[in-house]
């Protein structure tokens, strides 16, 4: 094309997605934060208190996987109650040509095991595995919250500002 326009995320975009898990309805509040390091401080504001983070990298770009590790470290250091999902994007390009894979699948799988993250390979173009990813996020949220309620003595004190429930982006 003569003119190629690519909109970069500045700050964050928000969408609410209503999901069904068994007989429960869960509304995921999803913030799409800027991947660029330039907006690093701003992204931090949006994921504070998040219960789940989908860390994306481009399956055709090894460097993007290294940058994804930076965000995983950030989350591990700052967000104890946040489950991490690794998401390799643009899987449609690999369907076209396997040689385009820039990150070895087994290396990512090993890393995912190490950080106890689930791993998905998705395509925004074809929609491949996108629904599965968000369904897993919702299911884990429901199951993990149920487990947490069972193991907590007397519920949750919402007046505690550092309570993960206070900032939770997901709610029933
Ligand atoms: N083939 C293919 N191209 C994609 C896919 N997802 C994104 N792209 C392309 O990759 C480029 C970057 O996509 P974005 O969605 O803007 O990437 P981003 O990581 O959100 O970037 P920031 O907004 O800067 O954080 C665009 O040219 C998209 O068209 C995909 O699933 N398949």
From TrEMBL:
A molecular function GO annotation: G protein activity
How does the record classify its membrane topology? Lipid-anchor
Any idea which UniProt keywords this protein has? Autophagy, Cytoplasm, Cytoplasmic vesicle, Cytoskeleton, GTP-binding, Hydrolase, Lipoprotein, Magnesium, Membrane, Metal-binding, Nucleotide-binding, Phosphoprotein, Prenylation, Protein transport, Transport
Q: Which InterPro entries match?
A: P-loop_NTPase (IPR027417), Small_GTP-bd (IPR005225), Small_GTPase (IPR001806)
EC numbers: 3.6.5.2
Location relative to the cell: Cytoplasm, Cytoskeleton, Spindle; Cytoplasm, Cytosol; Cytoplasm, Perinuclear region; Cytoplasmic vesicle, Autophagosome membrane
Would you kindly state one Gene Ontology biological process term found in this protein's UniProt entry?
A: protein transport
Q: Which reaction does it catalyse?
A: GTP + H2O = GDP + phosphate + H(+)
The terms describing its cellular component in GO are: autophagosome membrane; cytoplasmic vesicle; cytosol; perinuclear region of cytoplasm; spindle
The EC category is: hydrolase
Mind telling me which Pfam families this protein's record contains?
Ras (PF00071)
Q: What is its main location?
A: cytoplasm
Q: Which coenzymes or cofactors are required?
A: Mg(2+)
State its role.
The small GTPases Rab are key regulators of intracellular membrane trafficking, from the formation of transport vesicles to their fusion with membranes. Rabs cycle between an inactive GDP-bound form and an active GTP-bound form that is able to recruit to membranes different sets of downstream effectors directly responsible for vesicle formation, movement, tethering and fusion. RAB24 is an atypical RAB protein that presents low GTPase activity and thereby exists predominantly in the GTP-bound active state. RAB24 is required for the clearance of late autophagic vacuoles under basal conditions.
Q: Which family does it belong to?
A: Belongs to the small GTPase superfamily. Rab family.
This protein's assembly is summarised as: Interacts with ZFYVE20. Does not interact with the GDP dissociation inhibitors ARHGDIA and ARHGDIB.
User: What name appears for this protein in its UniProt entry?
Assistant: Ras-related protein Rab-24
Species lineage, top-down?
A: Eukaryota, Metazoa, Chordata, Craniata, Vertebrata
């Amino acid at each position: 094309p003569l003119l190629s326009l690519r909109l970069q995320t500045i700050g964050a975009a928000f969408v609410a997605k209503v999901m069904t898990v068994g007989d429960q309805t869960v509304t995921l509040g999803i913030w799409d934060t800027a991947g660029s390091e330039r907006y690093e401080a701003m992204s931090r504001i949006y994921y504070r208190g998040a219960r789940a983070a989908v860390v994306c990298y481009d399956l055709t770009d090894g460097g993007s996987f290294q940058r994804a590790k930076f965000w995983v470290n950030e989350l591990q250091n700052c967000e104890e109650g946040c489950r991490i999902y690794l998401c390799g994007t643009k899987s449609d390009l690999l369907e076209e040509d396997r040689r385009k894979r820039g990150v070895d699948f087994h290396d990512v799988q090993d890393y995912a095991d190490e950080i106890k993250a689930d791993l998905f390979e998705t395509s925004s173009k074809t929609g491949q595995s996108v629904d599965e990813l968000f369904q897993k996020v919702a299911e884990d949220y429901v199951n993990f919250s149920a487990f947490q309620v069972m193991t907590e003595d007397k519920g949750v004190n919402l007046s505690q500002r550092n309570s993960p429930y206070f900032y939770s982006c997901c709610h029933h």
